TrEMBL record:
<dbReference type="GO" id="GO:0010268">
    <property type="term" value="P:brassinosteroid homeostasis"/>
</dbReference>
<dbReference type="Pfam" id="PF00067">
    <property type="entry name" value="p450"/>
</dbReference>
<keyword id="KW-0560">Oxidoreductase</keyword>
<feature type="binding site" description="axial binding residue">
    <location>
        <position position="308"/>
    </location>
    <ligand>
        <name>heme</name>
    </ligand>
</feature>
<dbReference type="GO" id="GO:0005506">
    <property type="term" value="F:iron ion binding"/>
</dbReference>
<keyword id="KW-0479">Metal-binding</keyword>
<keyword id="KW-0349">Heme</keyword>
<dbReference type="GO" id="GO:0016132">
    <property type="term" value="P:brassinosteroid biosynthetic process"/>
</dbReference>
<dbReference type="InterPro" id="IPR017972">
    <property type="entry name" value="Cyt_P450_CS"/>
</dbReference>
<dbReference type="GO" id="GO:0020037">
    <property type="term" value="F:heme binding"/>
</dbReference>
<dbReference type="InterPro" id="IPR001128">
    <property type="entry name" value="Cyt_P450"/>
</dbReference>
<dbReference type="GO" id="GO:0051777">
    <property type="term" value="F:ent-kaurenoic acid monooxygenase activity"/>
</dbReference>
<dbReference type="InterPro" id="IPR036396">
    <property type="entry name" value="Cyt_P450_sf"/>
</dbReference>
<dbReference type="GO" id="GO:0016020">
    <property type="term" value="C:membrane"/>
</dbReference>
<keyword id="KW-1133">Transmembrane helix</keyword>
<keyword id="KW-0408">Iron</keyword>
<keyword id="KW-0812">Transmembrane</keyword>
Length: 330
């Protein structure tokens, strides 16, 4: 599977002003509804799970489209919960009762569901060849119609399923952790909360009476909240580490990294380096006032050709969640 081609296809629905602006209304409605439901619950909620559930619905919509039935969506979410724990399982054996065994069963069922969705999309596209370009909306559609220079299909069903599952984990699991820490930090820092609230109230005051819900223009006006998110991702980096293989012998100062060796970039160590960030343990959004990190000093989404394609979408998730959390005093 060609990484560059797959990356281009998968990243295209996740970046850019026009594309992200389309997601604002959808994410805004889901976040607002989710927070309202939490506020009515009499028992304490598990914040990480609840945020993860909202993000799962968002990312499934982006990957598979809005037409997925609610029953299918709920089934996928229930099955997917078996996959995460198996990634770090200390007993990766296919034996009944083990976490890994349950994950393999869930992976098979998810694959069957996604294959049915793919085949239905193929049939729809085949029946509507004249308007195919208009029908290609989500990432699955783009993978289905992708062809090489000879007109040959690039991805079979199994390849599409593998790609989608990988991106599903990256697009909902890790951002859920970041969003959870966002709620923790905004709750524990009263001065930060107050500054963020003043900004949000000003934006709401300036909103036209005819406008319903958030707009991407308003998102771009949230300067302080953006600094908060930058600081959040520095302090609680999504990517704990990045791994690269040396394709040639590399010489750095007095060190030699032989060809074939794996280099680990420990992101959190970089973000907590006092030579780069003064008082690194302190959560301080104001450090981002008129500050732009040098290359290699800020790596919450990795670096280089494998930079996370969903970086801006993740920031959008967190910003919209905080917007509602701050204004409604949840």
């Amino acid at each position: 599977m060609d990484h560059k081609t797959a990356y281009k296809i998968m990243a295209s629905p996740l970046n850019g002003y026009e594309i992200l602006s389309k997601y604002v209304t959808f994410i805004d409605k889901l976040m607002s509804k989710g927070l309202e439901e939490w506020s009515t619950m009499k028992e304490p909620i598990e914040l990480l799970s609840e945020i993860g559930s909202i993000l799962f619905k968002v990312i499934i919509s982006i990957f598979l489209g809005n037409e997925i039935p609610t029953t299918t969506l709920n089934k996928l979410e229930a099955l997917y919960k078996h996959l995460g724990p198996a990634i770090l399982s200390i007993l990766p054996y296919d034996l009944p009762g083990l976490t890994y065994h349950h994950a393999l069963k869930a992976r098979k069922e998810i694959g069957n569901i996604l294959e049915c969705v793919i085949e239905e999309k193929r049939r729809v596209l085949e029946r509507n060849k004249e308007t195919k370009d208009q029908l290609v909306q989500c990432q699955m559609d783009k993978l289905i119609v992708a062809i090489d220079e000879n007109g040959k299909r690039l991805y079979d069903n199994n390849a599409i399923i593998d790609l989608l599952l990988g991106l599903l984990h990256a697009g909902h699991h890790t951002p859920a952790y970041a969003a959870t820490w966002a709620v923790v930090q905004i709750s524990q820092n009263s001065h930060v909360f107050q500054k963020a609230k003043e900004e949000q109230e000003f934006i709401m005051k300036e909103r036209p009476s005819s406008q319903k819900g958030l707009s991407f223009k308003e998102i771009k006006q949230m300067k302080y909240l953006m600094k908060f998110v930058n600081e959040l991702l520095r302090r609680y980096a999504i990517a704990v580490a990045s791994f690269r293989e040396a394709t040639t012998n590399v010489y750095i100062n007095d060190y030699t990294i032989p060809k074939g060796w794996i280099v680990t970039i420990w992101t959190r160590a970089i973000h907590m380096d006092p030579q780069m960030y003064s008082n690194p343990q302190e959560f301080d959004p104001s450090r981002w006032d008129n500050y732009t990190p040098k290359p290699g000093e800020y790596l919450p989404f990795g670096i280089g050709s494998r930079f996370c394609p969903g970086s801006e979408l993740t920031k959008l998730y967190i910003t919209i969640l905080l917007h509602h959390f701050i204004l409604n005093n949840y």
